[in-house]
Prior knowledge:
It comes from Lachnotalea glycerini. The chain is α/β, with parallel strands linked by helices. The chain has helices at residues 12-25, 65-74, 89-94, 96-118, 161-180, 202-211, 231-244, 261-275, 309-315, 323-336, 338-346, 348-356, and strands spanning 2-7, 29-35, 55-59, 79-82, 130-136, 184-189, 191-193, 216-219, 225-230, 250-253, 258-260, 291-294. The chain has one domain: 3-Layer(aba) Sandwich (Rossmann fold). The two termini are 31 Å apart.
Amino acid sequence: MRTYLVTGGAGFIGSNYIHYMFRKYDNQIRIINVDALTYAGNLENLKALEDRDNYTFVKADICDKVAIEKIFAENNIDRVVHFAAESHVDRSIKNPEVFVQTNVLGTLVMLNAAKNAWILEDGSFKADKKFLHVSTDEVYGSLEEEDSYFYETTPIDPHSPYSASKASSDMLVKAYIDTYKFPANITNCSNNYGPYQFPEKLIPLIINNALQGKKLPVYGTGTNVRDWLYVDDHAKAIDLVQENGRIGERYNIGGHNEKQNIEIINIILETLQEMLPENDERRKLVSKELITYVEDRKGHDKRYAIAPDKIKEEIGWYPETMFKDGIRLTIKWYFDNEAWLKNVTSGDYQKYYQEMYK
């Protein structure tokens, strides 16, 4: 049975990845989920899996060298999927230090622990071991021309403390590949959306605020463009890169779903109106009049657009979920999981699990 070490598995993308892997492989794999349970980590995301014999949760910080090395020493880790990161741009602008600590130094701890556990006396590595570093398209900076795209060869040009910290972690992984011939891949993905996303991010924030009749904040003119990918498509891409990607390569993962932020908000409002029952009082609250333009974010990148040509040609992956379908799936999930959303917005989930894992 192959053992996967997933960092940040209680977060949005990490928890969706773990669900995907168990749906696909069931009892053929074992997953050890390591998460520090900061505000973005919520074990409610994985409650349906907690009784599985082949699933283990370990509360640990990836910057804790002793804790991470202990996990490697006590388990025969075959795959590392490294999600754990501080990821919200606005928070990075207010407090860059924690982003460097987690995203750069934490990645270094993970790389060293895996290298030391997998390396052989001759400097080569044990067979069938792989480390996958999950990163973002934001490391490439901003696109100005409408017909331009981010490729794996695009120069790194980060514009926020968050993207700079992720670019630094990417470069560390690349350095380990080049220096030690370390068995790793880097993936850079566009904006994800779907179930379990913390409601400070655009799509769940707009859904939650609209249903409560609260203002819908829009940076600047709302014309900044992002490429959106349904989170299950991302999980599938990560699995395929782990199994079929060429060692040492970087793969861009994009959704072919470029949309302006204001366009996303209007689609959500229109979809909510379509999906809410006629007798649902919230229909009266959902209105475009809630849209409120606010001062633009500092260093706000104009446009991101991923060209996923390489992953399609080499591995056969492509985004399967059209945005119109993915957004309906996402809204339905939030409709069906109002208790989850309430616990997250109130902070109750944090108090419960922090007490449990003191």
